[in-house]
Fold these 2 entries.
Entry 1:
Amino acid sequence: HQDLMALHSYNPLDDLYNHYPHSLRNIDELCASIVRSHRETSQYRLEELQALRWKVFSREEIQAYQSKTVDEMWQHCAVRLTEAVQYVVEFAKHIPGFRMLSQNDQIALLKTGSMEVVLVRMCRFFNTENNTVFFDGKFAGTEVFKSLACGDLIAAVFDFAHGLCALKLTEQQLALFSALVLINPDRPSLEDRVRVQRVHRSVEVGLTHILHRDNHDSLLHKLYQRMAVLRSLCSLHMEKLRWFSQRYPLTAHSLFPPLYKELFASEAELLPGAAH
Ligand SMILES: CNS(=O)(=O)c1ccc(CNC(=O)c2cnc(OC)c3c2cnn3-c2ccc(F)cc2)cc1
């Protein structure tokens, strides 16, 4: 009974106050810095994406995408994905506590988490009314990605974006959820798991605080369920990348952006001299 009481009396805010006595005296400051960083590292404002919502590709433009070869389309998407990941790396750097982690732990979190945050952010630029996603300046349906020969991955990506859109997250909720997804203490090969746990918990307190303030406590549980789907999506992406690199080794090894290889190619495939 004593232990239960201890558990009940545990207030994650204590943890936050104990470990960040000076810089983050209140949770609002933590939330504000994460939301600011999210805004500053999104290439488009919500209003801009809303205004472009009905700008879809013409039949000719769709034809042009579909007549690209598999490796041309993969290369094109790898560039887009790497661009999106670079903004996520910037986002991570401004999460209080992330920079305090060791270089290796920062890279370990980004290696597995950056793709997940790209997918989470997709709900900002997904139109659930016509199942299109903002890509290359217009809104594209799954048929635009046909020449990737990854129909199941793209369908799963669209399904995930659709499902997350349905939760109607605010920018603030999306910012905190993105930080929570990134700062995951269960990632493999972390040196200082306890420290990652501490930062994770402070972000969790922030998200809980925001959801409580928005009178939307039930959302936290749903968001945790979504995180499980994210992991399967990322392993599907890795599986497709392995298939692609075997079939088009030259493209994968010499034409993909270095950051893409750094983050997504498994150690084995990384060229010996790959920049670290
Ligand atoms: C997030 N910031 S933002 O301002 O809202 C913003 C919004 C949109 C865009 C431009 N669209 C994209 O970058 C984009 C669109 N659709 C994709 O997939 C359907 C993308 C994109 C980037 N990677 N992937 C991708 C993800 C997973 C995967 F397995 C394969 C590709 C840029 C920036």
Entry 2:
Amino acid sequence: MSLSRLSSLRLFRQQCHVGGTWVDAEDGSTIEVDNPASGEVFGRIPSLTAAQVEAAIDTAQSAFIDWRARTAQQRADMLLRWHDLVLANREDIAILMTLEQGKPLAEAQGEVDYAASFLRWFAEEARRVYGETIPGAKPGQQIVVLRQPVGVTSAITPWNFPAAMITRKAGAALAAGCSMIVKPAEATPYTALALAVLAEEAGLPPGVFNVITGEAKLIGQVLTASPVVRKLSFTGSTAVGRQLMAQCAEHIQKVSLELGGNAPFIVFEDADLDRAVEGAMASKFRNTGQTCVCANRFLVQRSVHEAFVDKLAAAMAKLRLGNGFEPGVTQAPLINQAAVRKVQQHYRDALDKGARHVSGAVPDGGQGNFVEPVLITEVNPSMQLCHEETFGPLAAVMPFDTEQQAIELANATPYGLAAYFYSRDVHRCWRVAEALEAGIVGVNEGAISNPAAPFGGVKASGLGREGSRHGLEEYTELKYLCMGAG
Ligand SMILES: NC(=O)c1ccc[n+]([C@@H]2O[C@H](COP(=O)([O-])OP(=O)(O)OC[C@H]3O[C@@H](n4cnc5c(N)ncnc54)[C@H](O)[C@@H]3O)[C@@H](O)[C@H]2O)c1
Ligand SMILES: O=C[C@H](O)CS(=O)(=O)O
């Protein structure tokens, strides 16, 4: 049993954290959580009732009144204490993450560092929530602009980054002076609950950071039906984001949406091919292809297509699939059978429409949630994978001839989260970077995630930004004071 890997069971909580107390569902109902590597159920979390979610909102509202009145320095100090505790408990959080999400332990440790970096970034930024003054329209008049916290906020987060997708939201919200209710994905609640244990230990006042679990639709409905909750920050699929955005219309709740993507990764003939392959591996295979900014389509200029495919195949041959706890494993199980079926479906559809299998095992679904990395080429825009996110270890390469064609192919998707390209021509770098319809562009870079940068998408990939000062501003409202001459 992998729970025995934990140094203690202190962080393994099977209750929700509301208003500084640990609670079960009042009707006793629970949801099972399993290990995607084995299918073994290793825990149960409460499925809160609607009344309990409403009570959590009330608690968060009371906490907000006190939290907003603290100084920015006091909030920053607590966030920094939380950051330090997360890092001090890096190993146990990573173990819980690998257990519930599957990712290789080294990647889970990396995610803990990344998650902590948002707490630090926003702690530092808390003291820089500046307003402005503007000359008035009359003698003696001044226009003063304040930035104030929006109020109680909620976060609904996905399973693929169970820690970082929470701290990226909570760090910003708490720094701004908001309280937050987090609903993590059903598949990965334990990392979120471990963060709540550490938030409590860091001294965050009760009700400022709450973690609730249960039936997603019900919780989403209660959070969006409440006039007290002033903002929802959602990370997940475009389909669910669209639905939640419509629900938020009822009370004109502010909304941030970090949704799906279908990232193009373009390799021009003047690129450094070795660096392009390095970037391709980082982008495509992080979290076994289950990253919203994963390259979904490699567009490679025809003159270097064969060389790039050979080098990519050689790099992919070094990947090792296995249980995330085994040393040296780089590719872990996918989250569930639906994820496995999606990779199979995109692979089969591509082969049926003329793609060529280059390397890797055919994804036939015969290994539980484990899928070998697979490389195909001769991909064309009629294929499903060009329009939908694969979210798995299928590397699909499409040749192109001209820069204009590459840009058109890259933009031919409803999504616009990340895009990547490799070129050594500085003029082309500016041209292509400006032409790509994406919120994030990696120029000769495959690893683009950073707390200091504004992360987010355009088109069907979402609204708003996370990380950076822009991410903090999402949790504030502007108030303008018109100061008369008196
Ligand atoms: N843009 C980003 O920053 C980013 C980051 C991570 C993941 N993602 C996207 O998330 C998706 C994968 O995550 P997922 O499968 O967990 O997505 P999902 O939309 O199924 O679930 C995300 C969250 O929404 C909840 N949810 C589901 N239905 C709901 C409903 N009707 N009402 C309220 N909540 C509901 C889930 O329980 C989960 O907590 C991918 O599309 C990926 O690209 C985007
Ligand atoms: O899945 C997408 C996330 O945003 C992950 S990351 O921020 O790029 O690490």
